[in-house]
Amino acid sequence: MSDNLDFIQDAKQLAQSLEKQTATSWLSDFRKQQLALFSEKPWPSRKTEHFKYNNLTSLVKESFNQSVDKTTTIDSLDQAAKLSELNADTLVFIDGHYSKQHSSIQENKITFYSEANDEQQEFIINQLGQANSAKNLFSLLNGGLTQDGVLLEFNKQSSDKPVHIIHIGSAAAENKTVASNLIVKLDELAEATVIEQFLSHDNNATTALYNQMTQCVIGNGAKLNHYRLHLEEEHTIHMGQLDFWLNRDSQLNSFHVGLGGKIKRLDINVYHQQSGSHADLNGIYLAKNNQQVDYHTNVEHRVANCTSQEVFRGLIGGSAKAVFNGRIHIYQDAQKTLAELSNKNLLLSNKAEINTKPELEIYADDVRCAHGATVAQMDETALFYLLSRGIPKHKAELMLSFGFINELLGNLKHASVADYLRPILAKLFEQSV
User: Fold this and answer.
1) Signal peptide: which range, if any (predicted)?
2) Which residues, 6 or more positions from 246, have their beta carbon under 8 angstroms from its beta carbon?
């Protein structure tokens, strides 16, 4: 219990030190409110359903009360951070701080919270206040620690140039905490592509706690193509949340990649607020060694005539543990809903573990819904077939593992993202099988 209190006290101490250097005094009351709620909220235990399979030992056994120096720099972007064929507006953040040196903004409307006008400030506060913190106390921590953030605004006249946001964690001499915040706003009939990418430098001597929240408001008839690529090193901890708010006839296509870490926890919420909206939610997660990775998805069908398709696939090797909890909630008034969820997992070792829990909560009677989950080991028949054709066992296992997720990569709208991910994932598979 004392360890939990130490973590909460560290968070308060960090918030106080950050408040002295903030450029967003108009968010001070909100930060204090969120931090107070965080302090009062019970700490998750193995009896807390929403965190039942999460081992939070790494959080409470280490100190995370250190802020990050704004002057931290890197010589150049790692080649791995570059999606050269994307031709995007690029925003680079090093340890949560904007790096003008490595960024390139040419066409899209990008506003930092510290530069927001009165109308934008009101929108930001209202949107942050809508964040679903009922189950996840780390969204409250994000609200208490976030000093600045980014507001992306798109309308139907906006450029079709993607926005690529790269978060890089630098190597540090001591543990650190980085809180960041992003709001994406699409006006009526707008179309946008946003790529969030998370990277870190390998430094096993220290642990980084990343706490990131993204809110996406998709207007009537608007379309958002969204990618979330978690490629941090395995010594990192990431507690993240994404909320998507869909309106009349709006469309969401969101793709996720998550590599395991000390703790990697992502909560994804999709809210169908007006009829005619559609959401595609797809993802891949890979954990090895002693890593943890956890995806909790929640799709809320609040109104009639909306559709959602969700496919997540996991590969777990070594002694790693993965969690997938996919919930579809259909309200009484959400007639004519079509919602489907599929989660398939492949265990690459006898010590690997997956806890998968698809959920359907339906209160309407005129709906079409399906959900399913599978957990399997490598197909011995397929492996034998490849071996009989003279393919070495290691390469055969690599081919079967990669084939398990390649379909999802092949369906990506932006081929350059798939081309970027394939060699990274193939290298990791080679180390895991």
Assistant:
1) none
2) 218, 252, 270, 271, 272, 273, 274, 277, 278, 279, 306
